Amino acid sequence: MLTIPNFTDRCSAAITEKGTILICGLDPQLRYMPAHLVRMMADKYSRSLEAIGRMFYEFNKQIIDAVEGYVFAVKPQMAFYEAYGVWGIWAFQKTVAYARKKGLIVIEDAKRGDGGDTATLYAAGHIGEVDFFGNEEDPTVLKTRKSPIRVDCITVQPGIGSACILPFAAAIKQHGTGIFVVDKSSFDPNSEVEQLVTVNGIPVWRETARLVRVWQAGTEGSQYGYFNIGVVMGATFPNDAVEMREELPMAWFLIPGYGGQGGTAAGAVVGINRDGLGGGVNNSRGIIFAFRKGQFAAPSEQFAIAAGKAAKFGRDELNHALTEAGKQVFRN
User: How many CB atoms lie within 10 A of CB 166?
Assistant: First the structure.
């Protein structure tokens, strides 16, 4: 059990305080950026990678300001940032810092997966501490410090197994951070690998859940009792969410697929426990690009206002679904 401040205890406290299980995904794409923002940054910084990095950060900052009252966490997907090199990573770092300043929990969607020293460095860089120079007298006597890209939680691929997950578990026990093991993704059709049947006669995703029960030992929070090694459980497969919850009664679920991928609010809350805790529901495109089409469509200059309206709608729709399912709903 973790007696230090930890990811799932902080998530639980944030949900009870703010009255929302909604997470906003921060996945900026140049092709979908507000036109006025594209013109402004291209004029100011020329057509450069710097312009894109600065635009992504400005976009994210305005989105965070608009949605902070309706979400308890944000989830930047690293792929959208690292594609633009140094300036993309700069935008990621600035976004993480700004979200923290606003009191939001930060979940990095990066799906790292490797073993040995590589897994140890992934864990150190994203949810732990990295080696750094020692003192002036002898910089070779190393100390550690937080990485500039450190977040509260990161998604991890389980394919390599314990050699990958255990270094992350060690970082969690030391620093109170968390991981989500990619288990049942939200893509439709679902992953061929996740659906493969093992020699035990059950699909790979259920075997993975059983492994998670082993890996998560000793990572439970002391306040709410949820483990800090959780799973990705897509909102698009509510029937499987029931089985996942049976396997992992006190795991935290990251629930993608609500909104843009077709998952419903009712399907998204299936994996939430009766206490109203145990998971967060992510919506990315449906919030940050709400200005582009649909009921919240608006001029480019009002993209953040549209995002705020979409986030409020999502919060309320999910809370209604929780009520209909007979589960605890917290009101802020």
Answer: 15
% of the chain with per-residue pLDDT over 70: 99
Range 302-306, long-range pairs (CB < 8 A, 24+ positions): 303/34, 303/37, 303/59, 303/62, 303/63, 304/62, 304/63, 304/65, 304/66, 305/66
Query: In order of start, what are the domains of the chain with their CATH numbers?
Result: 7-324 (3.20.20.70)
Q: CB of 208 within 8 A of CB of 181?
A: yes
Task: List the structure tokens of 168.
Answer: 């992350």
Distance CA 116, CA 235 (A): 32
Assess whether 111 carries a catalytic annotation.
yes
Closest Cα partner for 282 from 204, 228, 230, 244?
Answer: 230
CB of 105 closer than 8 Å to CB of 72: yes
How confident is the model over 308-323, as a mean pLDDT? 97
Question: What is the rounded average pLDDT of the residues 293-307?
Answer: 97
Q: What pLDDT is recorded for position 332?
A: 67
Q: Catalytic: which of 75, 94, 102, 111?
A: 111
Q: pLDDT tens digit string along 121-162?
A: 999 999 999 999 988 888 888 999 999 999 999 999 999 999
| DSSP code of residue 298 | -
Instruction: Provide the pLDDT for residue 200.
Output: 85
pLDDT above 90: residue 163: yes
Chain mean pLDDT for the chain: 95
Higher model confidence: residue 262 or residue 233?
Answer: 233
Q: What is the CA radius of gyration of the chain?
A: 20
One-letter amino acid of 224: Y
At 254, the pLDDT band (50, 70, 90 cuts) reads very high
